[in-house]
């Protein structure tokens, strides 16, 4: 899906946007239903939702919206509809669908996990954390939920606790690319680009790594000024439209004057003027 972002963003907001995209990988549901972050949404060519063009995504959203209107209590339809709404940029409506579904299925792990993701995407991090924790079964911990909890704690600034959870998730699911990606993005948010790149390269090298992991790696590489390499990574396995959108986004990020210095200054409580895109 093409990435759209405001033309003027501070370093902190740029990384927060990237983190929310990464969070989708960490808040996958359990079981056989389609996850809030990825997977086919039904009829058509079976293309994963994150690989759809904007036109394909609109078509899928409209089709699923019609199905949802006919049967709003169907869990699978509601989950798929929420996926496409989220990917289409309609986070508020996606959250409304998931909130209604969570009321209907208050103990369903798939639903609670997806509801937590929708809450996090809307910036409601504390309720998101509660939903993900309620979805977890301590005696049979699910690595996806452990990683998701870590991702939310990362956004809350609780880095040490988040990384402990990522490593717990790694014990449950060794070499899982989404966990490695979450860990890499944790260091990216902190400003440790080299460590972030190490984890993201490891994630991208796994056989089951998807395009989101590679986009996170492109971000880490691009923020270090190696733009040609970042552009090559960002263009893999995407349609020309998607690749151009991602490359444009990377160019916007790198054209920020002292974007990374802004981020570090903001973390120290300093205030710097927002830079314009060239």
TrEMBL record:
TPR repeats lie at residues 143-176. Residues 1-30 form the signal peptide. The keyword Endoplasmic reticulum does not apply. The keyword Signal applies. It holds the Pfam family TPR_19. Keywords: Signal, TPR repeat. Gene3D superfamilies: Tetratricopeptide repeat domain. PANTHER family: BLL7664 PROTEIN, CELL DIVISION CYCLE 16,23,27. This is Tetratricopeptide repeat protein.
